[in-house]
C-alpha cells in the first residue's frame, strides 16, 4: 500500500511543517534534544558524537568531553537553522541568535563550525540565497577547474567549487545533463530511461534541491517493507558473525605468536648462567609481560567465542513468509536485485558498507529526474561544454593536468590546475584493460586504484518501456507488480531487466513479447501490442557500460578509499580528484552517493589548496562546567585581545585594513574573515577591539 502526495499536497504538507515549527518554537520545543536529534539524522550526521573529519579539524575536541558537548550543541543547532529554511544561507549570526547562553558567546567556534559545514556541503549547498559574500582571494590562474561529466557528481562538484571561489567548467560527452539520469519525452509522455525514483528522501541531499526549486514531485510512502527488513536483518546477522569469526582468527594468530615467544624466552632463560642475575631478571620480566598479554588475549578470545555462540543461537529467519508463499518471496528477491542492480549471487554482505534499510519516502518527478540537475546548473550558471569527450588525462606535468578531448570540430588539448573526474566505474574498468573506447591515464593509474576498480562490482539494469492507448494497470487490488513502474498520469509502463548478460543481449522484440506475456497474466485486458516501446542498452553505452556500483564478492571497504584517492603531479600536490557514486562507501549506486561524492571532491580540493579556513582559537578562555559566573563577551576573547590590552577602536583604520587585505607569502589572507563583517566595537569576535586575524583558508 502506498500513500501518494502531489505538488499541491506537498505544499500543504510544507505549510503544515512550518506551522508545526512555529508551534514548537512558541512552546520552546524547537531546540530540544529530540528535535536536534531528528534534524541531525536528516542531515546524515551523528547527533551524539563527532565525525572523523570534525576530530581532525577541531583540536578543541581533544581537550575535554565538555568541549565536545559544546561543539555538538553548536553544530546541531547550525543544522537546525539550515533545515528550517534551506532557501536562504545559514550564517554565523543566525546560529548565534538561535543558541542560548553560554553557547552563543563561543563566537570563534560558531564561525568555524558554520564555515566547516558549508565547506563540506552539509549546509548552504544547492540553489539558495546568499546572505554573505564569500571572497576567497584565489589567483586567477589557479581558479580554473575542469569537471569531467555533467551527472549528479559533476554538477555537485561544480556548484560547490563555484561557491568556494573557483571557476569550474564541465566537459560533457553527451548532448545533455544528467549522465545515467536520463529523462526523455515521447508524444508528451515522460520516459525515464535512467534513474526514475528518488528514494530515502528523509536523509537525501536531493530533498534539499527539491525544496529549493519549483519541481513538481509525487511522493510515495512505501510501507510494504517487512520482507525487506527480514532479509536485511538476516544479512546483518551474517555480517556480525563474519566479523566475530575474523577477530577470533586474528586473536588465534596472536596467541600462537605469544606462545612461541614465551617458549623461546623460557629456553633462553635456562641457557643464562645463574650468576648473570641482571640478564636473567630482564628475560624473566619479558616472559611475565608475554604471559600477561597471552592471558589477556585468551580472555578476549573466550569472550568472543561466547559472544559468537550466543549470536548464532539467535539466528533470524531469512524468509518471513511461509514456504507456500515462495513465489512471493522470489518476487521480493527480484526487487532486491532491482535495488542492488545485479543478481544477488554476485553480491557479498559480510563487509558491506551500505545501509539497506529505507529512510523515508520515495518520489518521482513529473518533469523528469534530470530536470533537477538541469535547473540547478542553469540557476548556478555553471558553464557546460557538450560533446567534449575526454581521450587522455596526463598528470605527469609539474603543476597542472593536461587533458586531451574530442569535439565536433576535432581534437584539442588543454591544461588545468585541477581536474575532478567523475567517469563512471564502467568506463574506468575499460580504461584499465586498455579498451580504445575509454580514456587513457598517463602515467597509468596507481596499482591500488586499479585493484579497487577491478574488485568493485558494476551492475546493469536495462528497461523495457511500453506505451498504450490508456493505463489499464490501475487497480485497487494488491498485485505482484513489484518490478513495474509508471509515471503519474502516464500511459506508459516500465519494467526492469536484472539478469545474465545473455538476457540483456536479446532483441527488443523478444523483451517486449516477454513483458506483454507477464502483463497479461496480471491484467487480462492488456493489449497484444503497445503503441510504442523502448528498450535501453546501458551495457553498450560507451560512456557508462552499465548502471551502478555494487559490492561484489571481491569488494572490501578499503576499495572505496583507494578509488577516490586523488592523484598528485610531480610537484607533490593533488591535482586529479575522483568523484562518482562508485567512490562513496555508504551510498554507492545511488544519486545520493553521486551528489555526496561530488561535494566531497570539491571540499578536498578546496582544503588542499586553501587550507581548512578555521580561525585559531587556542588562546580563548573556556569556562569550566562547574564555574559559577555571569558570562561576558570579553571572557571569550583570546588573551591578547582583552579590553585592557587592546588599543582604542579606530573605525577608519579598521576599514582601511579590511579593504587592503591581501594574500601573504604563506597563502593566508590577512584581514577580515569572509564570513565575519565587523561593523563596530562589538564585532564577530564579540570583543571591544578590532578582531583582525590571520586566517588560513
UniProtKB/TrEMBL annotation:
Hydrolase as a keyword of this entry, yes or no, is no
User: Where located?
Assistant: Nucleus
Superkingdom of the source species: Eukaryota
Q: Which GO terms describe its molecular function?
A: chromatin binding; FAD-dependent H3K4me/H3K4me3 demethylase activity; flavin adenine dinucleotide binding
**Low complexity composition bias: residue spans:** 654-671
In what residue span(s) does the SWIRM domain sit?
A: 36-134
A GO cellular component annotated for this chain's UniProt record is: nucleus
Report the coiled-coil segments. Answer: 241-307
Per its UniProt record, what InterPro entries does this chain match? Amino_oxidase, FAD/NAD-bd_sf, Flavin_monoamine_oxidase, Homeodomain-like_sf, SWIRM, WH-like_DNA-bd_sf
Main subcellular location: nucleus
Compositional bias of kind Basic and acidic residues = 632-641
Keyword field contains Oxidoreductase: yes
Q: Per the record, which residues fall in region Disordered?
A: 625-697
* Transmembrane intervals: none
Q: Which UniProt keywords apply?
A: Coiled coil, Oxidoreductase
What SUPFAM superfamilies does the record point to? FAD-linked reductases, C-terminal domain, FAD/NAD(P)-binding domain, Homeodomain-like
Q: What family is this protein classified in? A: Belongs to the flavin monoamine oxidase family.
Q: What is this protein called?
A: SWIRM domain-containing protein
Q: What is the scientific name of the source organism? A: Caenorhabditis remanei
Amino acid at each position: 500500500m502506498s500513500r501518494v502526495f502531489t505538488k499541491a499536497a506537498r505544499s500543504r504538507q510544507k505549510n503544515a511543517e512550518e506551522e508545526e515549527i512555529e508551534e514548537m518554537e512558541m512552546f520552546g520545543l524547537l531546540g530540544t534534544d529530540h528535535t536536534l536529534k531528528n534534524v541531525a539524522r536528516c542531515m546524515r550526521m551523528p547527533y551524539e558524537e563527532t565525525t572523523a573529519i570534525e576530530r581532525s579539524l577541531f583540536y578543541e575536541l581533544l581537550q575535554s568531553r565538555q568541549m565536545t558537548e559544546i561543539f555538538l550543541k553548536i553544530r546541531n543547532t547550525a543544522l537546525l537553522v539550515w533545515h528550517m529554511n534551506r532557501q536562504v544561507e545559514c550564517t554565523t549570526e543566525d546560529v548565534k541568535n538561535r543558541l542560548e547562553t553560554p553557547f552563543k558567546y563561543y563566537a570563534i567556534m560558531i564561525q568555524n563550525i558554520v564555515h566547516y559545514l558549508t565547506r563540506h556541503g552539509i549546509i548552504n549547498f544547492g540553489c539558495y540565497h546568499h546572505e554573505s559574500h564569500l571572497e576567497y582571494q584565489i589567483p586567477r590562474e589557479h581558479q580554473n577547474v575542469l569537471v569531467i561529466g555533467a551527472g549528479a557528481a559533476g554538477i555537485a562538484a561544480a556548484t560547490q567549487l563555484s561557491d568556494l571561489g573557483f571557476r569550474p567548467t564541465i566537459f560533457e560527452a553527451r548532448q545533455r545533463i544528467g549522465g545515467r539520469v536520463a529523462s526523455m519525452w515521447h508524444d508528451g509522455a515522460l520516459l525515464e530511461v535512467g534513474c526514475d525514483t528518488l528514494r530515502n528522501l528523509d536523509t537525501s541531499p536531493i530533498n534539499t534541491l527539491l525544496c529549493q526549486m519549483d519541481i513538481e514531485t509525487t511522493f510515495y510512502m512505501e510501507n510494504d517493507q517487512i520482507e525487506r527488513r527480514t532479509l536485511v536483518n538476516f544479512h546483518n546477522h551474517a555480517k556480525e558473525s563474519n566479523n566475530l569469526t575474523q577477530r577470533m582468527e586474528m586473536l588465534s594468530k596472536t596467541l600462537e605468536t605469544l606462545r612461541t615467544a614465551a617458549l623461546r624466552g623460557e629456553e633462553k632463560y635456562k641457557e643464562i648462567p645463574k650468576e648473570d642475575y641482571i640478564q636473567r631478571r630482564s628475560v624473566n620480566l619479558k616472559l611475565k609481560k608475554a604471559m600477561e598479554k597471552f592471558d589477556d588475549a585468551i580472555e578476549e578470545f573466550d569472550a568472543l567465542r561466547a559472544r559468537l555462540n550466543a549470536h548464532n543461537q539467535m539466528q533470524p529467519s531469512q524468509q518471513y513468509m511461509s514456504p507456500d508463499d515462495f513465489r512471493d518471496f522470489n518476487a521480493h528477491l527480484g526487487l532486491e536485485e532491482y535495488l542492488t542492480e545485479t543478481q544477488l549471487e554476485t553480491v557479498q554482505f559480510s563487509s558491506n558498507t551500505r545501509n539497506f534499510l529505507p529512510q523515508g519516502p520515495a518520489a518521482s518527478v513529473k518533469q523528469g529526474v534530470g530536470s533537477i540537475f538541469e535547473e540547478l546548473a542553469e540557476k548556478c550558471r555553471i558553464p557546460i561544454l557538450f560533446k567534449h569527450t575526454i581521450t587522455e588525462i596526463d598528470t605527469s606535468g609539474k603543476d597542472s593536468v593536461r587533458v586531451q578531448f574530442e569535439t565536433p570540430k576535432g581534437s584539442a588539448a588543454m591544461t588545468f590546475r585541477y581536474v575532478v573526474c567523475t567517469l563512471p566505474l564502467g568506463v574506468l574498468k575499460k580504461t584499465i584493460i586498455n579498451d580504445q573506447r575509454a580514456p587513457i591515464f598517463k602515467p597509468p593509474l596507481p596499482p591500488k586504484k586499479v585493484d579497487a576498480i577491478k574488485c568493485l562490482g558494476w551492475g546493469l539494469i536495462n528497461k523495457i518501456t511500453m506505451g498504450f492507448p490508456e493505463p489499464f494497470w490501475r487497480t485497487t487490488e494488491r498485485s505482484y507488480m513489484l518490478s513495474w513502474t509508471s509515471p503519474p498520469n502516464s500511459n506508459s509502463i516500465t519494467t526492469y531487466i536484472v539478469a545474465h548478460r545473455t538476457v540483456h543481449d536479446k532483441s527488443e522484440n523478444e523483451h517486449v513479447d516477454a513483458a506483454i506475456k507477464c502483463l497479461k497474466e496480471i491484467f487480462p485486458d492488456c493489449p497484444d501490442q503497445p503503441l510504442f516501446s523502448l528498450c535501453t542498452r546501458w551495457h553498450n553505452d560507451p560512456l557508462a557500460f552499465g548502471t551502478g556500483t555494487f559490492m561484489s564478492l571481491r569488494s572490501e571497504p578499503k576499495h572505496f578509499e583507494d578509488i577516490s584517492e586523488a592523484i598528485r603531479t610531480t610537484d607533490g600536490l593533488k591535482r586529479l580528484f575522483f568523484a562518482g557514486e562508485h567512490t562513496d562507501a555508504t551510498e554507492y549506486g545511488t544519486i545520493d552517493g553521486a551528489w555526496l561524492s561530488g561535494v566531497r571532491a570539491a571540499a578536498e580540493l578546496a582544503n588542499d589548496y586553501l587550507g581548512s579556513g578555521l580561525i585559531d582559537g587556542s588562546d580563548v578562555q573556556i569556562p569550566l562546567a562547574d564555574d559559577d559566573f555571569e558570562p561576558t563577551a570579553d571572557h571569550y576573547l583570546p588573551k591578547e585581545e582583552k579590553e585592557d590590552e587592546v588599543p582604542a577602536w579606530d573605525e577608519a583604520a579598521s576599514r582601511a585594513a579590511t579593504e587592503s587585505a591581501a594574500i601573504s607569502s604563506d597563502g593566508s589572507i590577512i584581514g577580515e574573515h569572509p564570513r565575519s563583517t565587523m561593523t563596530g566595537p562589538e564585532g564577530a569576535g564579540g570583543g571591544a577591539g578590532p578582531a583582525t586575524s590571520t586566517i588560513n583558508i
